[in-house]
Amino acid sequence: MRSKKLIALLSCALLLLSGCGNVIDKNSSVFSKTETQTALTETGEITSQDTQPAEDSSAAHDTSAETSAVTDESSLAEPEPAEDSSSESADSSLPEETVPETDDLSVPYSKAYALYRADDDMLITEKALYDKISLASITKLLTASLMLRYYQPDDEITVGQEVYLAKPDSTMSYITPGTVLKVRELLAAMLLPSGNDAAYTVAVNTARTAAGDPDMSDDAAVEYFCGLMNGFAAELGMEYSHFANPEGWDDPDHYTTLGDLLKLADYVLSVPELCEITAMHEKYCEPSTGGSYLWTNTNLFLDPNSEYCRSDCIGLKTGTTNSAGCCIVSAFRINGSTYICAVMGCYENTDRYELAQRIMKKYIQ
Q1: Do 284 and 275 contact (CB within 8 A), yes or no?
Q2: Of 73, 188, 204, 300, which is the most exposed, with the fewest CB atoms less than 10 Å away?
Q3: In a domain, 3, yes or no
């Protein structure tokens, strides 16, 4: 009996030992990895990702990539760069006097502008005063000034074939060959509607008179007149200017600077006949040879029907070409002082008036 009991006990023990062996085997790999983990962690050479099974690690990686994509989409949906916010905050905290004075004059756009007080030769503000620019029909202020060096306002001029030298698509006064006009009327035809045909009549007749050659051809007379223009400009101190035609048509050799234009405008204001003409809104003319003309000034500061009309405006001239843009050299009599406000190179017709008014509002009390 004892032997049978002993054999039974030994059999049970062997079965138990066999079952415990299976349990240890199933857990041995986990234990082995945990043991390795403990050893590596103590040496500081393992990361939390290394402790995960391979499939868990892959899943973690995929999730990280997806989060990154979502973050990128979120930033695109709400584009508020940090630097913009900090810049805005910084700007709002700056004292008003630290803001550059041109900030509120940058719109409407212009290539150059200036405000000048003629009474005491005071340049109040400017942008790009000495940059080379086209001047379009503001050229005609020099053309008119030059004519009055050789003629009196009541002298008579007979219009000739030179009117056809004007480009067909340019501004016209529509004077016709054979018409007899007084010099003051011819200058009005050139300065108010900006007639290029009148500019050529001025140029050709002035050149023939200055040269003492009434038979000079139209083309030769225009070339001669341009020489007179450049000589006269030099006398006025317009050292950065050159003139290639009497009307202001775009040409690489036809240019000026805003600083030079202020000198020209200052001279024009010293000539009573030019002050009278450039301050007119309209001029009605009935030549002795018949017919009639009504010329209207292109300057909206002088137009009583315009929202830009100003009773203190006393001239002077607008200009517009592809190269020059929309320009104006205007003069005002304000609080007993004479101001010249020039705005050059605007995109739209009304931009020059908008900017000129903003400049004066800012600087003239």
Answers
A1: no
A2: 73
A3: no
